[in-house]
Amino acid sequence: MDKFELNILGCGSATPTTRHLPTSQVLNFREKLFMIDCGEGTQLELRKARQKFSRLNHIFISHIHGDHCFGLPGLISTFGLLKRTGDLVIHAHKDVEAMFKPMIDSFSENLPFEVRFNHIDPNSNSLIYEDRSLKVHSIPLMHRMPTCGFLFEEKQKERHLRAEMISFWKIPIKDFQLIKEGADWISPDGTVVPNKALTKDAEIARKYAYCSDTAYNEKIIPIVEGADLLFHEATFAETEAVRAKQTFHSTARQAATIAKEAKVKQLMIGHFSARYDSDQILLDEAVEVFENTVLANEGLLYKI
To answer: Nearest to residue 97, comparing CAs of 129, 141, 61?
Structure first.
């Protein structure tokens, strides 16, 4: 099965602690790296994860709170020092370009590559990136400023040919593609050979959904439904539910409720408040609602 791995580079919230760094993740899909948010310290954690900087060509920024984007200027500057030549695309709300373009121009003059901004409408569930094997949609979230999450979906592969059946019927190569796409095959004597006799199912396409920062929002359930992995912020425990509502964040119990209602396979919680000396209280709370829950943590590598 092709590589589909999530590296956690940072999983804390806005106030720095000695336990967690600000939010950032890297998704490795078939050796292509896709960064999700870029808080301070991201490039150092990227080094620790032993990921090749040259394979990172797309960065997705959920919103312009500093703990999700203050690492961008430093990372781009380092790319320049490394003599990168390939373009870097930043997918984000238009305000991100307005904020960071002057900074990039000031501190990273004469870059040997182009930094391009793909503007996202955070209020829309839209296709924002697509290649031959992957597509990414935005997920509208509820926060104090325009914010969106991201749904990374592997494209469904074609059906696999059964070599022994292809050989038995002496099917010519020119017909292989139609059969992979699901067509039956008709022999020269008119015999119809069902597609299921000639092929077997391909692996089911995988999905990863990222939702941070957001208040409890049931509208995202149909978008993330059935995801193999859902990352959902869990800034607070339920004892701070009022604070969570005031700041447009979620409790661990609320994150687990979304996971349960969306019937996802695995929930990962993160964006932990600095008020907690241990994240175990958040995990315990989430597990009461959705058993298949894990904590995000710097250095964690999760294979989807």
So the answer is: 61
